[in-house]
Predict the 3D structure of the following.
Amino acid sequence: MHIHSLIQTLISGKDRAYRAIGALAIGLGMLAGSATAQTASLDASLNEQVVMVPAASGTQNIELETTIFKPSGTGPFPLVIMNHGKALGNPRSQGRDRFVVISREFVKRGYAVVIPMRKGFSKSTGEYIDRGCDMTGHGLEQAEDLQSTLEYLRTQKWADKDRIVVAGQSYGGLTALAFGTKNFPGVKGLINFAGGLKMHGGDCRWQASLVKAFAEYGSRTALPSIWFYGQNDNHFGPDLAARMYEAYVQAGGHAKLVAYGAFKSDAHGMVGSRDGVKIWWPETEKFLQSLGMPTAPVVALSDDIKVPRTDFAAIDNIDAIPYLKERGREQYKVFLTKQAPRAFAVSPSGAWSWAEDGDDPVEQVLAACQKNSTEPCKLYAVDDYVVWTGEPLTTADTTAAKKPGTTSSLTGP
């Protein structure tokens, strides 16, 4: 889930490349991770844990794979419920969404961030229900899982049941606004990051259906909301965003639209990028203050661990990179055109991988490379510098590179 991340992987030196767009927003949603994302190691600095939340789907009891980030201590902590998008293909193929960038910003201000994978997604049980061209139904269907999640949280002593914000990106943004119609106790406001659902193929007039859905939600929601849509959003452009906003407000909804300029190659994934914080946090801070929610930093989080740079070679010295064949060197040139945060990994097998943006390009690139190599993968470059030491790779490197859930086989999206 997860967000503008792009991975390229070459398998064992063969002339076949696997390309996975981590933020494959096809649809229905930009994710902070690829459809074949590896299981990420838990972030101890954010007290990350994964729980299976009990829920119901009709008469069936199900469980929702849910990520929780929270400060140290017993709480109770104000809550942010963050909702994920949807990529093309089988929802079960999507990895667990973490939204590390947004989670860090809230945890350091004393919030617990809860990210449920809705039914049929990732390791959540139950079946995803496709409402076709009925966008109103799509949002309301997904909102049922949010209610189950919040009912569970009301039983947890560390959760402040009276100070809750519900947020979401892409399909998750649509879900958050749909959930607003439930007027759930303790929910103070809604945050919509590029919310919507895009249909591909067929004769569905999905744009008109989205506008109708937002009007329906606005007519039934008393909660205030803030919306973020960028100029170069490849899914919901400025005109459509304005139509959805006007429909929502004219129907009686309370919302503020933050229409910002172009962001990197696609504003749809802005919230998943470290560079996006300066766009969404200032306006979100004012919104939270208007709700009486906390905004001052109260938790000291250390900066991201930096991988030490070396003097092995200049970042643009393509000939210096070990193990790569011609295809890999061509892709390193592509890597050099990408914006930080970014990372490039190599293996003695000839496998390689690069990643751009997203929750953690370093972890992502190592997992993607190792998945397709029986030899250990190691970082060659991070951001704008080389980190390769020139030392032979060892069994210890293999162990470090193989994150839980990685395999030696390749599966496409």
